[in-house]
Prior knowledge:
Radius of gyration: 25 Å
Number of helices: 13
Oligomer: single chain
CATH architecture of the largest domain: 3-Layer(aba) Sandwich
Strand order of the largest sheet: 1-2-3-4-5
Helix content: 40-55%
Distance between the termini: 51 Å
Mean pLDDT: 95
Bound molecules: NADP nicotinamide-adenine-dinucleotide phosphate
CATH class of the largest domain: Alpha Beta
Number of strands: 5
Shape: elongated
Amino acid sequence: MGVALGLELLAQGGELAGHLNRSAEGRRQAAQRLGVPGAADLPSLAARGPELWLLTVPDASLPEVVETLSPLIEPGQYVAHTSGATSVSVLEPCAARGAVTLAFHPLQTVTASPAPELFRGISIAVTPGTGGGAWEAGLRLAELLGARPFPLRDEDRALYHAAGVMASNYVVTLAWLARQLFQRVGIPADGALDALLPLTTRAVENLREVGIPQALTGPLLRGDLATIARHLSTLEEEAPEALPAYRALGGATVGLLTEHQLLPEATLSELEQMLAPPAPPEPSDPSTSPKGTR
Length: 294
Ligand SMILES: NC(=O)c1ccc[n+]([C@@H]2O[C@H](COP(=O)([O-])OP(=O)(O)OC[C@H]3O[C@@H](n4cnc5c(N)ncnc54)[C@H](OP(=O)(O)O)[C@@H]3O)[C@@H](O)[C@H]2O)c1
């Protein structure tokens, strides 16, 4: 995320005072990609007097980074983190030193090889923290990236981020699961993804073109109970590791069908029963268990 944002801000005429990694190798790679020398430590980065600190470290590292950074903060500097789920209050030690704080979360998936113009047209959730002008700073930064900022309440961040994970990360997980099933039927791993991708891409395009629920097709929409039953029994026998995900998403799809009244109630309740996770085994009655086996 740090390199992707840095590259895009530079491309839009922004100025990058520097960047920091923990490892010399990380610093070398970031400097090579950004074309801007990295700093050896926080004090030397602070000496460059940045207007804005963008903390793009993993969520769990934020408190430690904020603690190290806060004594170096100059009043009026902006400090933003890019975590989706983390409260803006994690930046409070910097706010206590006079910084204007905000959470700035690009709703985009960024790999180690980010594509150019990755932020153009996307949404960016901005949660203002402490200090005047935090929202305006988020707005300016988002506009520089060609993105659409929207305000997000701090207490809503985890729920908002769970939605992002489902819409993006789990698509990859689903492709991995589907690829495993294809491999079971003899389609090699590289060919399997190639074969699956047009299906995924079309489903996403359908979402864009006709939305929910019209983008939904398949046996659940058709109320094809026999086909679903065959899927369940085959998965149980041949790929039991994929069964919980199939059941969970099937159950969620029944929710979608119910909300939009796309099937008769009797079919919906039958599907719901078929897809429900199997009941956990009854705990054995302690009064009847032999001594020492409880
Ligand atoms: N990737 C995404 O799709 C995405 C999307 C939206 C938001 N975000 C958010 O962006 C942030 C970064 O995510 P990411 O996916 O880019 O993570 P990442 O690929 O793991 O990169 C994190 C970077 O932080 C550096 N780092 C880790 N601990 C550090 C520390 N204590 N001090 C200084 N640098 C440190 C690491 O480099 P060294 O190991 O060399 O120090 C690494 O370059 C997270 O808050 C995440 O929630 C990510």
